[in-house]
Design a protein that fits this description.
Layout (H helix, E strand, L loop, with lengths): L1 H12 L14 H10 L4 E4 L2 H6 L1 E6 L8 E5 L3 H26 L1 E2 L4 H10 L1 E6 L3 H11 L1 E5 L9 E2 L6 E2 L1 E7 L2
Parallel strand pairs: 4-5
Antiparallel strand pairs: 1-2, 2-3, 5-9, 6-9, 7-8
Length: 175
């Protein structure tokens, strides 16, 4: 455990939050699963053979199995961890953005709007009226999620009441 404590101290000095799991009587598989369920993005595995080789195993949560594991020398570990955390953050962001884009429709009428919120997100003109928002929620169980900051600037008609609209909003059901 001295090697693990030394590595932890080096990572903490590099301003990386670290939790050393020193629980006895629990299998490594249980520990791995426990930390994954807590949402830890990167696990550092250090066994006796790794200590002898002067390396560690980095296991990414966003890439399960062997694909997400890499062997890294203990020297320069802090830089490798920082780099990998940036890569994980970017990969998660890219995946979420791709999911949002593939599940967002721009309906032309209220019928298409209803179908769109059944499948995912609907980006549609909205007049800004609380009454329209309430009625949309009553009929579709969808609520307005946000008004995107980036707007095309094109005027349109509210998807529900057909009144003039200056901006679009994203609607979706809660799950």
């Amino acid at each position: 455990m001295d090697a693990a404590r030394k590595i932890r101290a080096e990572l903490v000095a590099a301003e990386i939050r670290v939790k050393l799991d020193e629980r006895d009587g629990i299998s490594p598989g249980f520990k791995f699963n426990d930390w994954e369920m807590r949402g830890v993005p990167l696990r550092i595995e250090l066994g006796p053979k790794d200590v002898a080789k002067g390396s560690v195993v980095l296991a990414r949560r966003d890439r399960p199995g062997k694909e997400g594991k890499s062997f890294v020398p203990q020297a320069g570990l802090a830089d490798a961890v920082k780099t990998m955390l940036v890569e994980i953050q970017q990969a998660l962001f890219d995946r979420a953005l791709a999911f949002r884009k593939s599940n967002t429709a721009e309906p032309k009428d209220y019928g298409e709007f209803k179908a769109a919120v059944e499948r995912g997100f609907a980006l549609a003109h909205w007049c800004g009226s609380e009454d329209c928002e309430v009625k949309i929620k009553e009929e579709t169980k969808a609520t307005m999620r946000c008004i995107p900051l980036e707007q095309s600037g094109e005027p349109g008609k509210c998807i529900f009441c057909s009144q003039g609209s200056k901006e679009k909003a994203i609607f979706a059901k809660a799950y």
